[in-house]
Amino acid sequence: MAGSRDIHDAAVLQSDPSLHDRSHFMDLALREAKKALATGEVPIGALLVSAKGEVIASDHNRPISSCDPSAHAEILVIREAARLLSNYRLPNTTLYVTVEPCVMCMGAVIHARIETVVFGASEPRWGAAGSLYDFTANTGLNHRPAVISGVREDACKTLLQSFFKEKRRRDIL
């Protein structure tokens, strides 16, 4: 899956922003990821974008600082967007996240009826959008978001790998 442009729903591709727009939004998610990095959190950032291309909410990982295992960037963005829109359903939106969502986050995406998930780096240990699991291929679920992977993949992967490399170095010293 690495480096691919995986589209689970061709109809969504036609209404999805261009590659240039996807890169722009992923750059904003990378900015959020760097905020997480600055606070010692795993550097993952996310944002939710309306069909009109407006950023509804953006955030970064906070499970350590908030003592909340569910405080992943995606969950925080979904919560804020739902609050701002006064609706627990978020149709016609696109979630941009620097790393492939985990099982918990893909579950929230499905419950929120988010139309498209765009991510940068695959997550072979936790990913639920095609790497370890593929929730979007499960026909038993009532919603199947489209997935676009590999947007700004190198930048997303490098940020994450650098974080863990430095963490291992510090843990050894």
Which structural traits does this protein have?
173 residues; alpha/beta; 6 helices; disordered N terminus
Describe it.
There is one protein chain. The protein is of the alpha/beta class and 173 residues long. The protein has six helices and five strands; from the N terminus they run H-H-E-E-H-H-E-H-E-E-H. The chain has helices at 10-15, 19-38, 63-66, 73-85, 103-112, 153-172, and strands at residues 45-50, 55-60, 93-99, 116-121, 146-149. Strands 2-1-3-4-5 form a five-stranded mixed beta sheet. Helix 5 links the parallel strand 3 (93-99) and strand 4. Helix 2 packs parallel to helix 6 and helix 4 runs parallel beside helix 5. The longest helix is centred in the first third of the chain and has 20 residues, at 19-38. It is globular.
Structure summary:
This protein is α/β, with parallel strands linked by helices and 173 residues long.
Give the arrangement of secondary structure elements.
Elements: H1 10-15, H2 19-38, E1 45-50, E2 55-60, H3 63-66, H4 73-85, E3 93-99, H5 103-112, E4 116-121, E5 146-149, H6 153-172
Parallel strand pairs: 3-4, 4-5
Antiparallel strand pairs: 1-2, 1-3
SS-based class: alpha/beta
Cα distance spanning the termini: 35 Å
Q: What is the makeup of the main sheet?
A: 5 strands, mixed
Low-confidence stretches: 1-15
Number of strands: 5
